Amino acid sequence: MDAACFLLLRIEDPPRARSWLRQTLPDITTGADKTSEQLSHWTTGVNLAVTWSGLRALGLPAEALETFPEEFRDGMSARADILGDEDVSAPEAWEFGGPSGPAAQEDLHLLLMLYGTTDAEVTALLELQRARLEAGGLRVLHAQRAARRKNSEGHAIEHFGFRDGISQPQLEGFTDPKHAALDHGGPVKPGEFLLGYENEYAEVPQTPEVPAALDASGVLPPGREAGWKELGKNGSFLVMRKLRQDVEAFEQFLEAHKSVAVGETDEQKKQWLAAKLMGRWPNGAPLKPGEDTPPAPTSGGKDGADNSFGFAEKDPQGYGCPVASHVRRANPRDALPPNAELSRQVSRRHRILRRGITYSDGADQGMIFIALNANIARQFEFLQQTWLNNGKFGGRYAERDPLVAQGTRAMTVPRQPLRRCVEGLERFITVRGGAYFFLPGLKALKFLANLR
To answer: The pTM is what?
Structure first.
């Protein structure tokens, strides 16, 4: 679905809001199996997520709220030092989710996600929901439209011009075996993304719970201890960030630094430099040692883009894909010390499911970044703090992610006989808003809708 609208809502009247939730439940898009005929007519989608303050506003008592993890209770803006959100990306300047303002973190209660195959379908959904929201005691604090940007081949691309959404983890038990090899490292345990299932540590972690007395209708499954019910089962945690991309600054940087790049023409040099920063060619093909021009995407991956590669055997020094590039930092695959097998295991424990979509607000453009993970601290926050923002990574000691990290100034591009050093890196991406949400399963939604 190539169009979307994200509504950030405040609960003004809890009883009316719960009534609205009961009315909205039949419209929620589920993971139920659908026949190919049903899928051909499936043109819209509706999903709902809730913040910690939203759970409180709906009436969840303190003893239940305390079963949620600390990072979720804190909220994204309170974790700015961990996430590297500083200077112009500091929460004080956010459009939503910051410590103050008309859409402050404390006032964000619900995220209503409306999707459609066309913008007109999303508009129709939006008009229907606006009328219901007002009657349901809900106020819209922020509305964000988005539409997937595509290239001439029909593939999703972000505003810097690169294929997007290629590398996604395959879920064990949910993946057709013939597709399992498409993701390097093999399928990931479902408990990394769904609460209540075994994760990559061979554990089923504790999920958020509620006192059994609150579940008068018996909707929720039993908890681990007597007197409690599981609220988290089949749910997940959703990370949302609005990331502004400064396309003009990125293009100006490539023009100003093409002298350090490789290529016969200026355009080839700029493409080479951009690819080294990203970690893939714009068409999605992986970077390989000895290749200075993009090959055609190989078959076998998502829409023909290869994602089954590793780094340890054929590119340990980063002569193809630089160690400091965005793609290699975000998913090191088999390249972490001390060996490839342990690295693959570590990488699987920090994967996220990305479901982002591009937006364009006039001159302002970027990505609505959405990630699903069962453990925000161990997955999303670890990626941000330890792999993207950390200067000490992969044998480097003063370099950060060249695209998304704040404060990075240089990047080393390994090359024979002499390495290239790209200096004067600027801030190409700015955080404009964000929040942490709980994405409930259907039973949890029904329970919340009927809270007394």
So the answer is: 0.95
